[in-house]
């Protein structure tokens, strides 16, 4: 029986899953420029149909990242000297980039939104030095802004909860219960039932607020996903169940997405309220079905190393920190050119990826910048021994 501080072998399949999830996130956020949903920069080529491919990943992309983060936290805890040491290490790795991101990386995003959508007349330097750190709303935007870095903040909060649970809960019994409950059909039935309650009953058609003090729906979704990933890392029976149920789970995910497409295509822009629970239940089925299927495929087919994997896994966090700012700023410059929508989309994707890669390659070589962008400090050189 694996205890929460026993060593966990590296799972290359989940590394690839994490890299793929963040790659999808970049394309998804570029898509936000074109769909009717609110975003910091909006193209004149927005189209309602663009929502449909976005909904193929909308249900599961963030929950999957929290599951993978929980799994990685189990491995990191196993290498730490104590739970307190683990929390200190994770706090440095998460809170330092979060503070740097809020202060330096994020500010261009609300500036672009204020200029293009709220009539703000000041330049960026004026905004950053006089208005950004006001700790009050401006044009309906609370400043300073967390924006996409809410994920990092929530990940740190859930890490604190995890450490408390590790210190308070008798883990061997909890792990055995987890293996029993989720090692069979309960892997699909119980989480889907929980998610149906969230999306179809408690918060029908609800959205995350990204305010940790007023975001009950997000906490109901993401904290259990994070803890599931943590327990999964020590559970061979549940990993085997993910492999065993991967095809039925994939079928459920496709069925849930099919129902969502049917509702989106068959209703007026304002759907009747009686459809909310149906839509929410389909969202729940798609969400957990996709997660189980992807975990099963990662274990069965993708759990192998590659020479490219270390670089990609290291680059994921810096890419995440900077990608949204790059795409918003590029969109601000690009949209007035009046290019065709397809060209605009492809240029945004290419510019965002290239900008992220440059940010990572430059930042990783500067010792003082590495901790600020989520990279480990460079190891101290060993002193030379005199002959």
From TrEMBL:
InterPro entries xref list: Acyl_transf_3_dom (IPR002656), Glucan_succinyl_AcylTrfase (IPR050623)
Swiss-Prot/TrEMBL keywords: Acyltransferase, Membrane, Transferase, Transmembrane, Transmembrane helix
Keyword match Glycoprotein: no
Domain Acyltransferase: 12-361
Molecular function as annotated in GO: acyltransferase activity
Transmembrane annotation, as ranges: 12-35, 47-71, 92-111, 148-169, 181-202, 222-243, 250-270, 276-297, 317-335, 341-360
Protein name: Acyltransferase family protein
Organism: Sphingomonas kyungheensis
């Amino acid at each position: 029986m694996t205890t929460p501080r026993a060593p966990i072998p590296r799972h290359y399949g989940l590394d690839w899953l994490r890299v793929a999830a963040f790659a999808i996130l970049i394309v998804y956020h570029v898509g936000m420029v074109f769909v009717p949903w609110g975003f910091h920069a909006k193209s004149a080529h927005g189209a309602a149909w663009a929502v449909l491919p976005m909904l193929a990943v909308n249900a599961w992309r963030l929950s999957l990242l929290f599951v993978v983060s929980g799994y990685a936290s189990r491995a990191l805890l196993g290498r730490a000297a104590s739970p307190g040491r683990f929390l200190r290490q994770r706090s440095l790795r998460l809170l330092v980039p979060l503070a740097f991101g809020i202060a330096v990386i994020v500010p261009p995003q609300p500036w672009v939104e204020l200029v293009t959508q709220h009539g703000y007349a000041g330049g960026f330097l004026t905004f950053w030095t006089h208005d950004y750190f006001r700790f009050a709303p401006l044009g309906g935007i609370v400043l300073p802004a967390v924006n996409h870095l809410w994920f990092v903040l929530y990940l740190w909060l859930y890490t604190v909860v995890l450490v408390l649970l590790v210190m308070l809960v008798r883990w061997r019994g909890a792990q055995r219960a987890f293996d029993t409950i989720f090692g069979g059909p309960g892997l699909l039935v119980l989480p889907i039932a929980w998610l149906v309650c969230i999306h179809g009953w408690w918060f029908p058609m609800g959205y995350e607020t990204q305010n940790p003090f007023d975001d009950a729906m997000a906490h109901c979704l993401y904290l259990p996903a994070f803890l599931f990933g943590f327990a999964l890392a020590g559970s061979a029976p549940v990993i085997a169940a993910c492999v065993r149920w991967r095809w039925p789970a994939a079928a459920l995910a496709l069925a849930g997405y099919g129902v969502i497409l049917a509702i989106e295509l068959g209703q007026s822009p304002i759907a009747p309220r009686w459809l909310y629970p149906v839509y929410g239940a389909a969202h729940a089925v798609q969400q957990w079905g996709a997660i189980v299927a992807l975990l099963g495929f990662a274990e069965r087919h993708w759990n192998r190393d590659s020479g490219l994997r270390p670089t990609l896994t290291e680059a994921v966090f810096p890419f995440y920190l900077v990608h949204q700012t790059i795409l918003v700023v590029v969109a601000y410059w690009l949209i007035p050119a009046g290019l065709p929508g397809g060209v605009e989309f492809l240029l945004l994707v290419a510019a965002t990826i290239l900008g992220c890669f440059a940010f990572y390659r430059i930042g990783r070589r500067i010792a003082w910048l590495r901790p600020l962008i989520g990279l480990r400090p460079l190891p101290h050189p060993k002193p030379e021994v005199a002959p």
